[in-house]
Structures are given as C-alpha cells and as structure tokens.
Amino acid sequence: MSRLEGRVAVITGAASGIGAGMVRRWLEEGACVVGCDIKDSMPIEHERAVYVKGDLSRYEDAKNVIDTAVKTLGKIDSMVNCAGIALLGGLEDLSVEDMQKEFAVNVFGMFHICKA
Predict the structure, then answer these.
(1) Number of structural domains, the chain?
(2) CA distances (Å), origin 91, targets 94, 95, 101, 103
(3) Within 10 A of 89 (CB to CB), how many other CB atoms are there?
C-alpha cells in the first residue's frame, strides 16, 4: 500500500513549477489529486487526477475547485498551496496595479481556496 493511497489532495498552481511537481509526487504516493491553475491544463494526465481551471484571486473560482473536488472524489484530506506569482522590481518599478495583482493571487488566493 502506498503512503497516500485513498487520500485526496487539492493542489494549487498545478500547471507548472512546484505545483506540478507536487501533483506528480502525490500521485506517485498513491493519492488522488485535484489540481487547479489559471492555465488551460496541467502537464500531468492521470486516472487519479482531476484538473479545474480557475483564478483563485476570485472566491467563486476557488469555491468551484473545492465543490468539484468533493463532487468528483467525495472528500478532501489535504490542501497544498503552490499558486503564486512574483513580480520583480523595486518600489519605483512596480505599479499599484502590479502590487494589487500580486497580493490578490498570493494572499487572497490562498485565503479563498482555504475558506471555500
């Protein structure tokens, strides 16, 4: 029996980087995964993986991810928050809109998915 067999994880930022790596690892360990990201798909297709496209800076999208996870897999055991952006530059380089976007994704995105 694999370490995570029978467990269900929601993994944000699943379309690339650390999030995609986490999806791979959780699947290797036997878990079922619901991945989400703003991209059209995640690079991993697996019989125990479901993908939901969504912008977690919007509560409605986060709620859809959670509702889909519960409807499709019956439960959620773990949440892995990997979604995030990093806009590079100093205070003089970043616009107010850039900072609002970064805050919306990195702070409210995690809040929304956990709240949902």
Answers:
(1) 1
(2) 6, 8, 15, 14
(3) 10
Task: Say if residue 88 is exposed, middle or buried (CB neighbours under 10 Å; 0-12, 13-18, 19+).
Answer: exposed
- Does any domain span residue 2? no
Question: Residue 106 maps to which CATH number?
Answer: 3.40.50.720
Domain residues for the domain of 97 are 8-115
User: pLDDT tens digits for 60-109?
Assistant: 999 999 999 999 999 999 999 999 999 888 888 889 999 999 999 999 99
From residue 77, alpha-carbon distances to 11, 59, 69, 71, 98 in Å are 11, 20, 11, 14, 34
Model-level pTM?
Answer: 0.93
Closest CA to 34 of 104, 116, 97, 96: 116
Classify residue 106 by its DSSP letter. I
